[in-house]
Design brief:
about 100 residues, mainly alpha, 4 helices
Length: about 100
């Protein structure tokens, strides 16, 4: 009786496992969408278009000491506030609004 119970339990488990798949999934076995991975290929191509670009304005040199000072100011809550730049212009017009 134990062999029959094992066989029945294995059969029940295999039926339960195959119930998770659908017919649509089985039709796509071995099929790969031609556009699959296109975003990755485009990003890779954008990185290798010019592996050694030459710019008109060179990148300014950086200073590790300057960066360390900024980190210390951040940790001590003494961050320099950036200069405020307004993105909108306010103007008072001469529109009288009369009829």
């Amino acid at each position: 009786m134990t062999i029959k119970r094992k066989t029945l339990s294995i059969l029940a488990l295999s039926c339960a496992a195959t119930a998770c798949t659908s017919v649509a999934d089985k039709e796509l076995v071995g099929y790969q969408d031609p556009g699959f991975g296109e975003a990755n290929r485009a990003t890779f191509a954008a990185m290798v278009i010019n592996p050694d670009p030459q710019y008109d304005n060179p990148i300014p040199p950086t200073s590790a000491e300057h960066a360390a000072q900024a980190i210390d100011r951040y940790r001590n809550d003494a961050v320099k506030q950036p200069e405020r730049i307004d993105t909108q212009e306010s103007s008072s017009g001469g529109n009288g609004g009369g009829n």
